[in-house]
Amino acid sequence: MNEKIFKDRTKKLALEVIKLTEPLPNTRAADIIGRQVLRSATSVGANYRAACRAKSTGDMIAKLSIVEEESDETLYWFELLAEAKIVAAEPLAPLMKEDDEITAMTVASIKTLRAKK
């Protein structure tokens, strides 16, 4: 997958999470988890953009590792939203699938870069 498509996918994920979190119920749990998923999901794209500007292979691996961590964290918050029944599982399913694909592609990129190094 090329850089532009991946940037677009990570941005789209962030925008979808923004839409998801706006109507969350006004409860303490929903507020805390909503803030966390919003923070981690928007961080995925921001850190990917930073990785695209890396100064070295090592720098790129380090930045992509942050993308991996934030993407995996996003999946955790999605799971909590569903399991706590704050959000129905059905609307979360496509977001979880996309986030899982982003994580897998990031891991594959990191492995490729490490093999080249």
Description:
The chain is mainly alpha-helical. The protein has a single domain, classed as de novo design (two linked rop proteins), CATH 1.20.1440. The protein has 4 helices and no strands. It has helices at residues 3-21, 28-52, 57-83, 89-116. The protein is elongated, with a radius of gyration of 15 Å. The two termini are 20 Å apart.
Topology:
Blueprint: H1 3-21, H2 28-52, H3 57-83, H4 89-116
Helix pairs in contact: 1-2, 1-4, 2-3, 3-4
Short description:
This protein has helices spanning 3-21, 28-52, 57-83, 89-116. With 117 residues, the protein is mainly alpha-helical.
Give me some keywords for this one.
117 residues, 0% strand, de novo design (two linked rop proteins), mainly alpha
Could you give the count of β-strands? Answer: 0
CATH class type: Mainly Alpha
Residues in helix, %: over 70%
* Shape descriptor: elongated
Q: Say what the CATH topology is.
A: de novo design (two linked rop proteins)
* Topology as a string of helices (H) and strands (E): HHHH
Assigned CATH architecture: Up-down Bundle
What would you report as the Rg, rounded to the nearest angstrom?
15 Å
Strand portion: under 5%
At the fourth level of CATH, the homologous superfamily is: 23S rRNA-intervening sequence
How many domain modules?
Answer: 1
**SS-based structural class?**
mainly alpha
Low-confidence stretches: none
